[in-house]
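Saturday, quiet lab. Running sequence design on the structure tokens for the scaffold JK sent over.
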């Protein structure tokens, strides 16, 4: 089994390359990879390291039981749209939202690289993130991008704060610097 440092370095190499190709910040990609897959240990399905939901562009997919935090209106909307897979309320939170368990459809990929490529495409071209991406293109404010992406990406409380904390961790910053340096040397 690969250790954390090996997995982080591998995803950092991919993230730096995709940052150069697409502009999707390596820190954002790595932070969401870490959070969504427990630092690469637990992808959804075979190789969905970002928890990307199934869309028409995905040839491979799987159904997975997951937990979300929904308002009552979101529970009702989910149940209406997915009558054969209703949400199961686990607990009502102090703020009135509900932690629910749902069976949802997720994209699946043949490899870590394919998962990272689709994630970078989603952030830079996907409809839910279009406004956040356009704003980032103007201001290059990573914290603002993280906050705006998180609003649509996840239902977990404090998700944006967790992503930002991981994005600025020293091990992430160092892995990106090493991958960036290796990339620069390779292109010479």
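Result came back. Writing it out in full:
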């Amino acid at each position: 089994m690969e250790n954390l440092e090996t997995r982080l370095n591998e995803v950092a190499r991919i993230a730096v390359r995709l940052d150069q190709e697409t502009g999707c910040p390596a820190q954002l990609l790595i932070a969401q990879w870490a959070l969504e897959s427990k630092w690469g240990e637990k992808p959804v399905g075979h190789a969905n390291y970002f928890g990307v939901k199934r869309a028409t562009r995905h040839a491979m997919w799987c159904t997975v039981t997951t937990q979300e935090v929904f308002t009552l209106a979101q529970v009702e909307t989910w149940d209406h749209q997915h009558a054969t897979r209703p949400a199961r309320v686990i607990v009502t939170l102090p703020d009135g939202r509900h932690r629910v368990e749902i069976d949802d459809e997720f994209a699946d990929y043949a490899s870590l690289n394919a998962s990272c490529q689709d994630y970078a495409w989603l952030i830079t071209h996907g409809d839910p993130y279009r406004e956040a991406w356009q704003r980032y293109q103007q201001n290059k404010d990573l914290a603002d991008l993280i906050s705006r992406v998180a609003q649509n990406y996840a239902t977990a409380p404090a998700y944006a704060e967790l992503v930002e904390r991981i994005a600025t961790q020293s091990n992430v910053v160092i892995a990106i610097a090493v991958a960036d340096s290796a990339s620069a040397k390779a292109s010479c």
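Notes for JK: The mean pLDDT is 94. The helical segments are 4-22, 26-37, 72-81, 112-125, 130-139, 142-153, 159-167, 170-187. Ask whether to fix the surface positions before the next round.
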